[in-house]
Amino acid sequence: MIALRRKDERGHFDHGWLRTYHTFSFAEYMDPDFMGFRTLRVINEDFVAPGAGFPTHAHRDMEIVTYVLEGSLQHRDGMGNGSIIRPGEVQRMTAGRGVTHSEQNASESEWLHLLQIWILPERSRLDPGYEQKFFSEEERRGRLRVVASRDGRDGSVTIHQDASIFSSLLGAGDQLTIPVVSSHHAWLQVARGEVSLGPEHRLQQGDAAYWSGEPTMSIEASADSEILLFDLA
Question: What is the C-alpha to C-alpha distance for residues 21 and 189, in angstroms, rounded to an integer?
């Protein structure tokens, strides 16, 4: 059975420099019915003002995946990494025993739009780590392209959990079949656009659908769209 998490049901805070939407409980936002889904703990949709950002702060025991939709993100961390993340690039940071980092809108004139994703690791106190890879529009167009996985298959970034993240770009009228291992669970996040899941459910940017025990699902885009699929044990 498909269940929905509508965009207007999410936690929302407007800090001026940051407009953020929390799919799951996070910081001051608490929803006991949405503490996470399987090992998926956080999906925050963030809009960051030009030149603004998150000062240096610490994390531990979390797989943090950053997915930029518009703009550019300046990343710096205590491991010595410094990079710019742009649309099409996926960053994975293993917080493990503990890591510090900062994130800032790299532009002084344009807003930054990104998804911040946290996945619980398979074990605690992992060695901290960092990875960043680019996935072209061509390889994501009309198909599910794995961008993060436990085994780093097909050039995806490696996450320390039995989970996979897929990205897809769809044009109006494009159809896609979503296969999920029958023993696994699926979370579909609409990052941009509008899609229909099966004959009954229409989803817009910020909406999500989740299900278990369904081996396949069909999706059709009614506008240019970008989706993320999480396949979770």
Answer: 13
Could you give phi then psi for residue 102, rounded to 5 degrees? -130, 150
* Model confidence pLDDT, tens digit, residues 56-69: 999 999 999 999 99
Listing DSSP states for 164-216 in one string gives EEEEEEE-TT-EEEEE--TTSEEEEEEEESEEEETTTEEEETT-EEEEES-SE
pTM of the model: 0.97
The 18-22 sheet, strands edge to edge:
11-14, 18-22, 40-48, 112-119, 63-70, 89-94, 129-134
- pLDDT range class, residue 19, cuts 50, 70, 90: very high
User: What span, in angstroms and rounded, lies between the C-alpha atoms of 209 and 187?
Assistant: 6
**Three-class DSSP category at 138:** helix
